[in-house]
Specification:
Layout lengths: L5 E2 L8 E6 L23 H16 L5 E3 L8 E3 L21 E4 L4 E7 L3 E7 L4 E7 L1 H5 L2 H13 L7 E4 L9 E3 H11 L4 E3 L6 E4 L1 H12 L6 E3 L24 E7 L4
Parallel strand pairs: 3-6, 4-5, 9-13
Antiparallel strand pairs: 1-2, 2-14, 5-8, 6-14, 7-8, 7-9, 10-12, 11-12
Amino acid sequence: MNSNVWVIPEWSDDLVRGGFSFRQGGFSEGPYETLNLGAKVGDDIEKVRMNREVVATAGFGPQTEWVMAQQVHGHNVGVVGRRERGAGVTLEMPPIQDCDALVTNEPETTLVILTADCVPVLFYDPVHRAIGAAHSGWRGTTQHIVQQVILHMQFLYMTEARDLRVAIGPSIHRCCYEVDEPVADIVRNEFGENYLVSRFQKPGKYLLGLQDCIKRDLIQMGVSPANIEDAGLCTSCHTDLLFSHRKEQGKTGRECGIIRLNHFE
């Protein structure tokens, strides 16, 4: 492991490698300082490539084996493998279209999700050797994207929810995530009133903890609470360490949630 700051799930081992990057240890400058991994935020593309190489050499495989999603704030899940390697990374292959989550059981395939407030979620089935990664903003969360990932893994790889290890990465937390009435109504319909906190003297404004909604969905599907890790870090509170689209008013970089299956005997 290099000297960058990372959050590594406890289940990472020689068979699977998962992690959440921070903003330190890269080459970018200005609002993208320094380990920006987003190629479409206005940063120098060569520096983004160099930053991604820093991540690759931290045990996540060459960029030619990475797979990235288009991320449209939906709930679709892309099923990927050997043929999709390089999607969203090389000029020849666009990202996997119209999806915000990826699953695979192919070794030497790395799934990459980019975030800067939205919640990155990593999934690992150690029994059937399958992995997943999801980008869960408020839209994806209220469309139950993490449940869609589990359903896909159950159907494709015979995953049992009780076997899953799930990691929730750095993301904006309830302390900083204010939403208005239209968003609050959707949250109420999907999760109930208890997931919203009314703002004092700010009618129609609420604080929302997406992480709590995601945990409810995971547990409802049969994931053991003991198998859910939450980094507990708010991107908006820690812009010295993490990128925050909201706190930095849209002019910032992207960190990643990343997971890779390795070959095993």
